[in-house]
Write a structure and sequence with these properties.
4-stranded mixed sheet, alpha+beta, 9 helices, 213 residues, 52% helix, globular, 4 strands
Length: 213
């Protein structure tokens, strides 16, 4: 089965807002999701964007306030109405728990969505092992083997490779989708992802004169 590549982080607001719609689009196209959890903070910094903590108050109010508010209504994805309490915590453990699921051959579509939803709807602390265990059980996954494997050298190597690949392929943020090599950044591009799965767009990414890192 052909795949749609999905670069994202387990705490990403816009990955959450697009998660259910993305899953439905991929399923309807007869494909599967190739999950690529990444260190989003490093991807953003390496991509040349201003780090989240250094953006202006107006920028934060628009992109992490009004935009989320509107898309929450548009997608039927409830949210807290504010940035989650623990949003600045380390994101290694949840991202690596997802990768551990892949290493163990588990289908993690539901687990990934459950993490995103728990963080943005329920104010869950994704850096907390007990919280992640509860999210895993709620998603129908035995969490302990994944949590035990999450910080292993094998999984951390994959996490670094995912992040390095995202930077090399000019991923700007989360979520980013690749349909047969064509990049779509942001859940607001999901209608275009759906169209590309039916009929590819003309042209190619990256353009011939571009040399992604």
């Amino acid at each position: 089965m052909k795949e749609v590549e999905y670069f994202y982080a387990a705490h990403s607001a816009f990955a959450y807002l697009g998660s259910e719609r993305f899953r439905a689009i991929v399923t309807a196209a007869g494909r599967r999701i190739a999950h690529r959890p990444v260190d989003l903070r490093r991807v953003v910094a390496e991509g040349g964007a201003v780090p989240f903590g250094r953006r202006t108050r107006a920028h934060a109010a628009y992109y992490f306030g009004r935009e989320i508010e509107r898309w929450s209504e548009e997608r039927g994805a409830p949210w807290l109405g504010r940035i989650p309490t623990h949003h600045a915590n380390d994101i290694t453990l949840p991202n690596c728990m997802l990768i551990a699921g892949l290493v163990r051959g588990i289908e993690i579509d539901g687990l990934a969505h459950a993490m995103l939803e728990a963080h943005w709807r329920d104010d869950a602390d994704l850096a907390d092992r007990n919280t992640l265990a509860a999210i895993g059980r709620g998603a129908g996954v035995d969490p302990m083997p994944l949590l035990d494997l999450a910080l292993s050298p094998e999984v951390k190597t994959i996490y670094q490779a995912n992040t390095d690949e995202a930077i090399r392929r000019s991923v700007f943020g989360s979520p980013t989708y690749f349909v047969d090599g064509d990049m779509f950044y942001g859940q607001d591009r999901l209608d275009m992802v759906e169209r590309a799965l039916r009929k590819p767009y003309a042209g190619a990414w990256p353009p011939p004169e571009s040399t992604p890192r």
